[in-house]
Amino acid sequence: MQKIPTAWLQLKYQKLRLIVALSGVVFAVIIVFMQMGIRDALFDSAVRLHQGLRGDCFIISPSSTSSIAMQAFSQRRLSQASAFDEVEFVSPIYQEFGQWRNPEDRSYWRNLNMLGIDLRQNILNLSGVDENIELLKPSDTVLFDSSAREEFGPIVENFLNNGEVNTEIRNGDSTRKIKVVGLFKLGTSFGFDGNLVMSHLNFLRIVDNREKGFIDIGLIKLKEGVNPDLFRQKLQNYLPKDVKVFTKAEFIDFEKSYWQSSTAIGFIFDLGVFLGIVVGIVVVYQILYTNVADHLPEYATLKAIGYRNNYLLKLVIQQAFLIAVLGYIPGLLISIIQYEVVKKATLLPVFMTFDRAGFVLIATIVMCAIAGATAVKKLQDADPADIF
Amino acid sequence: MKPIISVKNLNHYYGKGNLKKQVLFDINLDIYPGEIVIMTGHSGSGKTTLLSLIGALRSVQDGNLVNCGRELQDTNENGLVDVRRQIGYIFQAHNLLPFLTARQNVQMSIELLDDVLTSEAEERSARMLHKVGLGDHLDYFPQSLSGGQKQRVAIARALVSNPKLILADEPTASLDSATGRKIVNLLQNLTKEQNSAFLLVTHDNRILDIADRIINMDDGRLAKDNQLKTIT
């Protein structure tokens, strides 16, 4: 027999109250989605460079804490690694901040990330690098990150119109004229607003105060079939303790865990998720509680005519579930739109993933279930003996 | 004939410890199938307490109470609910669910029976509303019905599952006298038609004439048991 859907009919009857309850859930869902989306985008953007490196193992200085705070180490360690049979080739990577002069607004200087690479190996798997690598051979030439923030000037537009852009880079006391000869794509992250790729020779022309033979990342490409985990162990044991060896996965985790645990950022986002859920619980609890309190005589009547307490429990839990699902759907849609807005504004890779959508759906249902389970306590006040 | 309600030596108390106060004293009462009994008495005399005990809405503390063949004094909450399903209740306030239509409110009573088809439940509810004179108000919500109409819906809800026993507490209290009269006549006709026992608590002297028997509650004791038909 098809029973009357009392849970839904009661919710629907007081439309304003339902809308308030749903807005509470929508609000909580959006907060959680935004916090998680931006957090994940932060981590993803922070390791985009790492993911684009065509290497299996990496050597860095133990003093390096993250890509925004790299310490140089002696290139001799990388040469030592190249002596192993398992190694196909090694390649040094130089990395440092430089101040870029906005070519339109020449008094405006802004920091960007400079990468110096050995042009003999194609080590950067980033769109636009391989096809332009030959252009980087002349002195003072660079590739510009087409996803950089617009504060660097209309570089992409000017480059496409004129085929080149000229400006200056400052590092320490020296300023050097450079020429953009191509575009590549890396994207901004919390650490970097823009990126340049150049040959290591040109890099050292700009960074002229660097001690000779010191590099920031040592990339190691292994021969086919070599297990990177075993080789990493072997190399670490062989090399002195003045360098650290990572596999690619460890190198990525190293960078992510810096942002997660060594900065307040990870904690702040987790706190945001937590607060969003708390707000949701409180709003849904309030609505369910007043719903029960206002309908006590009706619930007592239902008990009097022969309905069991379980029926009323189910009614409230069903309402909690309905509120969860009905609030989640608009929350999801608004969040997808919000992601686009954030992506445009920050150039961070914010996007909805299936996993996250599923996680938040379950979190929303759990949130409403907690609120419902708390509100049903009020049902005990529905005493059928009171209504005669 | 066996009584449908049999109350023997029933006592009831409110409160605990020093505040414990006896509200019912040694009640003895039998009600037979098809009988209309009116219980009178001033407010606070314990009428409503007795009614809620008979209706299995309250647990029996002391004494014996048999309802529809079931001993209520040793029945747990689940058993009490089973007894409630055999009873039709009419309250002073109509207590209709505001978010359900007249028909859905009546149908809530039928849904307690397990083996009824949806179409049959709808049809029975509609038929019952026809009987109480609301055949053209099936899909109205309580807020758009008058006081008398709401009480008719409540009567339909109480009677739709053919209960053996109907309990009513001041069903005319919130109605004007003409409407109240109509409601009482309706209740009289329907309970006779279904051969249900009907226990009615009221202050309203104008409706005493429908009773087969009038009992009077005074300070927690049943004072008199008048055979009305023999008096008049």
SS-based structural class of chain A? Answer: alpha+beta
Largest sheet of chain B, if any?
6 strands, mixed
Helical percentage of chain A: 40-55%
Terminal residue distance of chain B: 25 Å
Averaged pLDDT of chain A: 91
Strand content of chain B: 25-35%
- Global morphology of chain A: elongated
Order of helices and strands of chain A: HHHEEHEEEHEEEHEEHEHHHHH
What profile does the largest beta sheet of chain A have? 6 strands, mixed, barrel
SSE order of chain B, one letter for each helix or strand: EEEHEEHEHHHEHEEEH
Beta fraction of the residues of chain A? 15-25%
**Major sheet strand order of chain B:** 6-7-8-3-9-10
| Total helical segments of chain A | 12
Pair with the most extensive interface?
Answer: A-B, 24 and 35 residues
Low-confidence stretches of chain B: 228-232
Q: Catalogue the unreliable spans of chain A.
A: none
**Radius of gyration computed on alpha carbons of chain B:** 18 Å
| Rg of chain A | 29 Å
Number of helices of chain B: 7
The computed structural class of chain B is alpha/beta
Describe the protein's architecture and organization:
Chain A has twelve helices and eleven strands. Chain A has helices at 6-13, 15-46, 48-51, 76-82, 155-162, 200-206, 228-238, 248-262, 264-294, 296-304, 309-346, 354-375, and strands spanning 57-60, 73-74, 87-101, 109-117, 141-145, 165-171, 174-184, 195-199, 214-215, 217-222, 244-247. In chain A, helix 2 (15-46) runs antiparallel to helix 9, helix 8 crosses helix 9 and helix 11 packs antiparallel against helix 12 (354-375). The longest helix of chain A is centred in the last third of the chain and has 38 residues, at 309-346. Chain A is elongated and about 95 Å long. Chain B has 232 residues and is α/β, with parallel strands linked by helices. Helices cover 32% and strands 26% of the residues of chain B. Chain B starts with a strand and ends with a helix. Residues 228-232 of chain B have low confidence and may be disordered. The chains are: A alpha+beta (388), B alpha/beta (232). The interface between A and B is medium-sized, with 24 and 35 residues.
